[in-house]
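for the writeup, i need someone to sanity check this before i put it in the appendix. the sequnce is what the collaborator sent (i think, or maybe the updated version? ugh). structure was predicted straight from it, no edits. if anything looks off just tell me and ill rerun, i have time this weekend
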Amino acid sequence: MTKFKKILSIILAVVIIAGVWSMGFFEGANWGWQIHLPSPFEKILNREKPTEIPPGDMAIFWETWKVILQKYVNRQDLETSNMIEGATKGLVESLGDPYSEFLNAKENEILSQELSGEFFGVGMEISRKNNAIVVVSPLPGTPAEKADLQPNDVILKIDDKETSDLSSQEAANLIRGPKGTTVTLTIYRPSWNEAKEVKLVRDKIVIPSLKWQMLDNNIVYLRIYSFNQPLTFDFYQAAFQIINAKPGGLIIDLRNNPGGYLDSVINLGGWFLPKGAIVLKEDFGNSEVKIYRANGNGLLKDIPTVVLINEGTASASEILAGALKDERGIKLIGVKTFGKGSVQELVSLENNNSLKITIAKWLTPKGTIIQDNGLIPDVEIKNEEDLGSYTQINLEKDKQLQTAITELQNY
């Protein structure tokens, strides 16, 4: 696999702003593809006007283009490259899909840095939802968590910039920045009477993969923070330690898990599901459906298990939760998940631009559509107090965890 034929299979939602992840799962992003512009666009980029207006639906575009060049008061200052970028962004925005975006060369470079793991930001995943930029999940130990940002917090302003017309990628670009610098977010939370300003100092973001420990009553608590690159190796080590502990029950905590790599969740599913069980379905439209099946050792499939979910459970974590529910009848405990269930492909364009385009939607093994719907818990219970990113177990205050333990004891 060469540098220029790099296949990325990642479920991000959501931009990590280096912490900020723009929610989106990029599957099969082929950095080697080149999509050439039609000849009229090539002429424009060469600062030439088309000799005639093309027929058909494009006529209105070229007619508008011609009028601008002839009549706009500041036409001598026009930069055709900026005009083409604006038109292209408008074309993608007309899809009405918050996860499909045109990225210019600068934005594309930032995304490449994020995918490589070099993060300087505040440590949260964001997405565009209900025509607003919202927090999907703060990451443990980051400035976002320390500032007590929570899933579904609405980001109204980034410094002095209102976010109402921003894409998640544009918002992420504004939030990230050099280490040690400050960004001010204007946050609205439904439980507040008014919006509040939150100042965050940017830092390098290191995303943990998991932790586990033995609770009372011979129950293992497994917290998966992110389906990142280290997870497969880290879980391999942890899995055999868990097996050797011979637990009578297992709690998988996917709360505030924003997602990660598709490969990671498929590999992890292979530990909990019998070989051949369905982990995920991808619906590409036109009756084309791709099925991903467990191909692991299934060494943890016979341990009684429950899964904790909340509104910060998104993307890859929704895939795992849905697969365990449908294929093993495992109970989901908590509150409804975020509902990020679409697949974006990153396609390289001319001049270091790129297009992030939604190509499919995810379905659970039994056909539940994740996108916008989320997963409904089998046992719905909401914690009365904010417990942050659940980095520390708090049995006294964590009602969801208490319920999970009770479910396993009654198994």
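The two ends are 47 Å apart (CA to CA). The CA atoms of residues 250 and 305 lie 5 Å apart.
thx in advance!!
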